[in-house]
Amino acid sequence: MKKNLLIAAVILMVISLQSPLLAIEATTAAVSTSAKINQALELTVAQSGQSEIHFGTIQSSDTSTKLGPFTFTVDVYSNTGQRYEMTQLINSPLQNIAGDKIPTKNLTFKTSSTRSAGTAITTPAATSDKTQTIFVSDNKGTSDTIVVEYMLEAPANQPAGDYSALLTYTVSVL
Questions:
Q1: Which of 50, 61, 99, 149 has its CA 20 to 30 A from that of 115?
Q2: What's the CA gap between 44 and 90, in Å, rounded?
Q3: What is the pLDDT of residue 2?
Q4: Over the stretch 71-113, which tens digit does the pLDDT of each residue have?
Q5: Rounded to the nearest 5 degrees, what angle is found at the Cα of 46, between the Cα atoms of 44 and 47?
Q6: Domain boundary assignment for the chain
């Protein structure tokens, strides 16, 4: 019986020690968190060091000469979630140091996409001295790799020489 009383006393003591702990209420605190991810729409030339389309030196001929294809790869990164377009603009006809020109219509191109369901120029088209849309992304504005393939047709009896022009690519949200 003493043993039972001792056990009962120990139990009561444990309960009485825990009672104040049970009466303490939990508290909470809210902490505001935020992160900002800037929107980005960028294009880069995929091949390291590639900054020109070089068809080589053109030799004059009694017939037109086709040169190429020359493939140029451009990576477009987008996290905007919006459709975008890639355009090109040639600054002038291809011209040599003597001022001889190859018309822009003789430089043709077509495009393809490696990652998305965007719209490409699949039939060769002539370059122009006006801005040309060469690719439109899918509706989600998915990042993509655009392959641009160029062909050059040097007209018959075109004077020999190194011809050049500047192509500028731009990517922008639609």
A1: 50
A2: 18
A3: 57
A4: 888 999 999 999 999 999 999 999 999 999 999 999 999 999 9
A5: 130
A6: 41-173
